[in-house]
Design goal:
Blueprint: E1 20-24, H1 31-38, E2 46-50, H2 53-61, E3 67-71, H3 72-78, E4 82-91, E5 99-102, E6 111-115, H4 120-132, E7 138-142, E8 154-157, H5 159-167, E9 174-177, H6 178-186, E10 190-197, H7 205-218, H8 221-232, H9 236-246, E11 247-248, H10 253-268
Parallel strand pairs: 1-2, 1-3, 6-7, 6-8
Antiparallel strand pairs: 3-10, 4-10, 4-11, 5-8, 5-9
Length: 283
């Protein structure tokens, strides 16, 4: 009897990768950090989620994402996060995208409209007005639309809207740059956002991917400025100056000192806890 040859089944083993959920924002100032990840220019195992800053903070707190580019005020408030080393969105002097519009002197401000998307910047505004200038106006959260400045003495705008308005303010208004005021008063950089990592999250090789994305993105600002200028409708030269000269992307000793000083002033206004240091992610 002739025996049949056994059937040979080819088994292909596929590597199953659990993606790390990375949250970021679509603001221009975040693009040099995330653009290479978005475009696949660096190897990574991220699932990138782009959402407004306030929503991003909630998602991180609920652990719907593993790490996120959140406002530093939220980072201080939660206390349970660690910050990805060497990466931030900060300024050392003029920033252009966090501004206060006023129709008169700072001392005369009674009511201020604030961009409801902001957290760290609204707290920074309160420090500037209440501690640095000893005035206590009312703050009215609003959408940054055409009615933003209605029936108020001043208005704070952030992000891409703030950047565009800084160069093209409405007639009759003066522009105060909050990043510049902060540095003039404290001698320190102001950190707006950090990549915060949830407890128990292991980044593995993705930690290196974030560093490579930052290095790659900050090296291709010309391309980013051109693309984002078209997307946002903001002059390309303004985008270039903003990304090259205004926004800083490091998280070193001075930036950490700035975060600690910010927390001290927040505690004076009962807006947050005073911290003595910043927890840096170390795997």
């Amino acid at each position: 009897m002739k025996l049949k040859s056994p059937e040979i089944h080819e088994i292909t083993h596929k590597r199953v990768v659990k993606l790390t959920r990375l949250g970021s924002v679509s603001f221009l100032n975040a693009k040099p950090l995330t653009y290479p990840i978005e475009k696949g220019l660096v190897n990574h195992d991220f699932e990138l989620v782009l959402t407004p800053p306030a929503e991003l903070s909630v998602m991180l707190h609920r652990k719907e994402i593993d790490l996120g580019l959140i406002p530093v005020a939220e980072f201080i408030k939660r206390g349970a996060y660690s910050a990805v080393p060497d990466i931030s969105i900060s300024s050392n002097g003029r920033v252009d995208s966090v501004i206060l519009l006023t129709g008169g002197k700072l001392a005369d401000i009674k009511t201020v409209a604030v961009d409801r998307r902001s957290q760290s910047s609204t707290a920074l505004l309160k420090i500037v007005l209440e501690i640095f200038n000893n005035i206590s106006p009312s703050y009215i959260p609003r959408e940054p639309d055409g009615a933003f400045m209605t029936d108020v003495n001043a208005g704070m705008l952030i992000g891409d809207t703030g950047l565009e308005t800084a160069y093209n303010p409405p007639e009759g208004y003066d522009v105060y740059d909050l990043g510049e005021i902060w540095t003039n008063e404290t001698g320190l950089p102001f950190v707006y956002a950090v990549f915060a990592v949830n407890e128990g999250v292991t980044l593995g090789e993705n930690l290196g991917a974030l560093a490579k994305s930052k290095a790659c993105g900050t090296g291709m600002i010309g391309e980013i400025a051109e693309r984002e200028s078209e997307r946002l409708g903001i002059d390309e030269n303004i985008c270039n100056v903003y990304l090259r000269e205004r926004i800083k992307y490091d998280l070193g000793e001075k930036e950490i000192e700035g975060i600690i000083r910010y927390s001290e002033l927040l505690s004076e206004l009962d807006l947050g806890e005073k911290i003595s240091g910043v927890s840096i992610y170390n795997q």
